[in-house]
Amino acid sequence: RRVNEVAGMLEITDILHRMPGTISGGQQQRASLARALVREADLYLLDEPMGQLEPQLRTLLRGRIKHYIKEHGLTAILVTHDQTEANALADRIAVMEGGVLQQFASPQEIKFKPANLFTGTFVGEPPMNTFPAKALADSDGGLSFDLGHGQKLSYKSDDFKAETRDLVASLGNVVVGIRPYAVQRTAQGVAARVNVNQWLGDQSHIGATLGDRPLVLVEHERSAVKVGERIGVHFPANDLHVFDANSGQAITHGQEIA
């Protein structure tokens, strides 16, 4: 019964009678995964189990495998370089770099509260925009980030909790991060110059330069901005990530700020 259930789930029922050498690489990978899942075990280790599959089939099977694991109360460790796969299947994600654990948390926390600069820039597509900055407490209770090249991000006193403002300002050298979809275009923002504008069918990816740093914006409407055009951009406080420039550790994130 379990063999038939797993074979149907992985779309290999029609090849159960065939020898490994007579089936494709993708079918062999699904057969290997099926052999693992039909066994009774306390822990399943799945190393890139869908790496050879076509994108459409991979998307279909991700949902089925997660449902199967949940339904049968299984515990599995999945090794993957595919962020979409990790987010779709995992209850918790371990982000590794050079054999060192960087963060172990839910997919939501990994994305919205990265523990450090590596995790913040590694997870997410397009990657997080980052800007080295000098944090300054303003006399009116606000907080500014001097990006150099005459560019400054300024926030009002009610944009930051007092303790957060004081902590950030005390560090001085920080890295400000913001995800591409959170960047807003506004005439009152800091100036950036457009380098490329790509329409991907359902969203525009705008590549620009802010100071001497690259900036990527994602907009869900087709953007008419032209290459060479100067645009104003704003980084909402609720979407801001601030990291210690020396250690790379996160200081504060979005919803913790305001």
Average of the residue pLDDT scores: 94
> What is the strand content?
25-35%
Question: How would a textbook summarize the main sheet?
Answer: 6 strands, antiparallel
CATH architecture of the largest domain: Beta Barrel
What radius of gyration results from the CA coordinates? 23 Å
Low-confidence stretches: none
How many DSSP-defined strands? 14
Given this structure, which CATH class of the largest domain is correct?
A: Mainly Beta
Run of helices and strands? HHEHEHEEHHEEEHEEEEEEEH
Oligomeric status: single chain
CATH fourth-tier homologous superfamily of the largest domain? Nucleic acid-binding proteins
Which structural class do you get from the secondary structure elements? alpha+beta
CATH fold assignment of the largest domain = OB fold (Dihydrolipoamide Acetyltransferase, E2P)
- The DSSP helix count reads 8
Task: For the largest sheet, list the strands in their spatial order.
Answer: 7-6-5-8-13-14
Whole-number tally of structural domains = 2
Q: Estimate the helix proportion, in percent.
A: 25-40%
State the end-to-end distance: 55 Å
Based on Cα principal axes, name the global outline: elongated
Domain Transport-associated OB type: 176-243
GO molecular function: ATP binding; ATP hydrolysis activity; transmembrane transporter activity
Family: Belongs to the ABC transporter superfamily.
Keywords: ATP-binding, Cell membrane, Membrane, Nucleotide-binding, Translocase
State the main characteristics.
258 residues; alpha+beta; OB fold (Dihydrolipoamide Acetyltransferase, E2P); 2 domains; six-stranded antiparallel beta sheet; four-stranded antiparallel beta sheet; 8 helices; 28% helix
